[in-house]
Amino acid sequence: MKIIKKVIIIMLLAIITAGFIVASYGYYMYKEALKEVTLEAKIEKILSTENYTKLEEMPDIYKDAVIAVEDHRFYKHHGVDYISIGRAIVNDIKAMKLVEGGSTITQQLAKNIYFTQDKKFTRKISEVFMARYIEENCSKEQILELYLNTSYFGNGYYTVKDACRGYFDKEPINMTSYESTLLAGIPNAPSVYAPNKNPLLARQRQRQVLSRMVKYKYLTQEEADDIFTDKTE
Prior knowledge:
Blueprint: H1 2-36, H2 39-47, H3 60-70, H4 82-95, H5 105-114, H6 121-137, H7 140-148, H8 160-168, H9 177-184, H10 190-193, H11 199-215, H12 221-229
């Protein structure tokens, strides 16, 4: 029994040490990223993007759809959703690799503007630090707007305005509920869900978006079904 206890203690110490090293390196990456380019400079560059799309130029149902499918506790957390992270850690341990991120919209913004898309633990830690920093310096509305202007919508479209004009031949504010919920699902996997390339998969993803909207009380099931079946709505 003493040997087993010693082994367990050694394993726990090794895990704690490894966690400390990863966290320290993640924090170092976060500080170095800010040192290289300030958040203010990053935001200024994004705001100057051609066809930058403001929140007021987007339908409410589109914004609701994005929040429902990407980060339904967006207005309740401070950059990091520990409930989602806990769930993701359990699933990652089961798979023995990073299969689920648990990232909030703020974390995704941090990744979009500062870090790579690689699924590495150190990058995830630096992303957490950056998300907390972004939340301290930006309003929720600004974070959502910046996120929607740094996400990729497939087919070479990097802003909501570009995507709406390209996919629907209209301005964002004129999107129907059908188009809004279709567009909201694309950034999860743009090469897969681009409606002009994989319309069936795009529709399947749209169904997931609508399901989340029902789950989090943005829509009733009847409203979701009507949207899904009425392309001209």
